[in-house]
Amino acid sequence: MLNFALGPVMSSDLVLKIGSEQTPYFRTPEFSKITLENEKLMKEMLFADEDSKVIFLTGSGTSGMEATVMNVFTENDKVLIVNGGGFGQRFVDLCKLHNIDCDDIKIDFGSCLTSQMLEEYDNKGYTAFMVNICETSSGVHYDIDLISDFCRRNNLFLVVDAVSSFLADYINMSEHGVDVVITGSQKALACPPGIAIITLSGRAVDRVNNNSCKSMYFDLKDMLLNAKRGQTPYTPAITILLQINARLNQIKNDGGVKVEIERTTNLANDFRNKIKEFPFEVRCKCLSNAVTTVHSKEILDVNLVEILKNEYDIWVSTARDDLSKDMIFRVGHMGDLSTEDNDTLIDALRDIQKRGLF
Ligand SMILES: *Cc1c(COP(=O)(O)O)cnc(C)c1O
Questions:
Q1: Counting atoms of ligand 1 from 1, which one is nearest the CA of 135?
Q2: Whose CA is nearest to atom 3 of ligand 1?
Q3: CATH number of the domain bearing residue 328
Q4: Pair 275, 346: CB distance under 8 Å
C-alpha cells in the first residue's frame, strides 16, 4: 500500500515498531519524562515562547478545535473566522454551538486570502481570529504574514489550526504572534490518529485559567495542572504519545523543523513538476506544501481515486466534487514518502492513461 491521502499518512518503521509493542502503564516518572520532552520539542518546533504550554488531548484533530473554542473564548468575544472550505465551516459551526459570537470571511473554494479581504474587517470590534492555515479541503494555504499583521493592528487573539500544515509550512508562534496552534497526530506527524496537540501562548494559558469550561473531559485548566508533572487527568492514547516522541526526536536529529519543512516542500515541488505531463492542472497559486490539489482540463468520466486504490493499491484523497466538478484528487506530501514514491504514482497514472481511461 502506498498512501498519499491527507491523513492518516505513511509512518516510519520506527513509529510502526512502537505501535506493535505492549502498552506501558503511564502513571510513572518514565512516562512523565516522555510527555515533558514532547512538550519541549513541540515548543521548539513551533518557536513558542518560554511561557507557552502544550496540551496532548486524546481525540482526533477536531477535539483540539472544539476544546480550544470551549476554553479560550467567552460570551464577551467576537470572533472572525476565515471560511474557505470544510474546516473553516467547522470553526463557524463550533462557535455557533458554543454560543460564541462570530462572523466569517467567506472565501471562494480554492481562492487565496488577500490583504483587501482583510481590510474590510479592520476596526470592527473583533476580539479574536481563527484560521485553518491550510484549508485541507481545497489545499489552500492562507498567508500567515498577512494574518499576523492584521491581528497585531487590531489586537486580536489568534488561533491557528495547523493540523495539516505543521511540518509542511513555516509557522513561528513568537514571530507571527500566534496564541493557539492546533495540530493532530495523523497528519505530518505521521503517527496513528488519536492525539490532538494544542500549544498555548502565555496569553492563551491566562484565558484558559480565567475561563470556566462546561465539560469535564475537555477542561484544559485541569489538563494544564496535570501537564506540569507530565501527566493527564485521564488515560491518554499512550502508545501514540510514545510514537510522537520518537517522531519528534527523529525530526530533531535529522536537522530540525526547518529541514523537515524543506523536505516536504521538495516532495511537493517534485510532484507538481511530474504531474505536468498529463492533461491536468495545478491551478491554485497558494497551495500548502502538505497537499497538491489536481484539476483536470476536461471533466473526466472515470474516478481516478477509485482506480488507483482498487487496481494499483495507491491511495489519494478524494476531491470536493460538490464544489468543483473538474477537481480530480488531492495528493498529500505528508509522512514517510519519497520522490521515488511520487514516481510510482506517476507511473500508475501513465498506465491508466495508456489504457485509454483518460
Ligand atoms: C485533518 C484536519 C483536522 C482534523 O480532523 P480530524 O478528522 O478530527 O482529525 C482539522 N483541521 C484541518 C485543517 C485538518 O486538515
A1: 13
A2: 61
A3: 3.90.1150.10
A4: yes
Quick: pLDDT tens for 230-259. 999 999 999 999 999 999 999 999 999 999
Give the domain range for residue 36. 21-253
- Give the number of other CB atoms < 10 A from CB of residue 295: 18
Last residue of a domain, one of 194, 227, 253: 253
Out of 161, 169, 288, give the residue to mutate to test ligand 1, the one with the largest number of ligand atoms within 8 Å of its CB. Answer: 161
Residues 155 and 186 in one domain: yes
Task: State mean pLDDT over 100-127.
Answer: 97
87 and 141 part of one domain = yes
Q: What is the pLDDT of residues 39-50, one digit of tens each?
A: 999 999 999 999
Atom of ligand 1 minimally distant from the CA of 187: 1
- Give me ligand 1 centre to Cα 62, in Å: 6
Say if residue 233 is preceded by a cis peptide, omega within 30 of 0: no
pLDDT of residue 347: 98
Q: In which band, very low, low, confident or very high, does the pLDDT at 297 lie, cut at 50, 70 and 90?
A: confident
- The answer to whether 167 touches 184, Cβ cutoff 8 Å, is no
Q: Does residue 67 register a pLDDT over 80?
A: yes
> Ligand 1: distance of its center to the CA of 119 in Å?
28
Of 126, 138, 161, 147, whose CA–CA distance to 84 is shortest?
Answer: 138
**Atom 11 of ligand 1: nearest residue by CA position:** 163
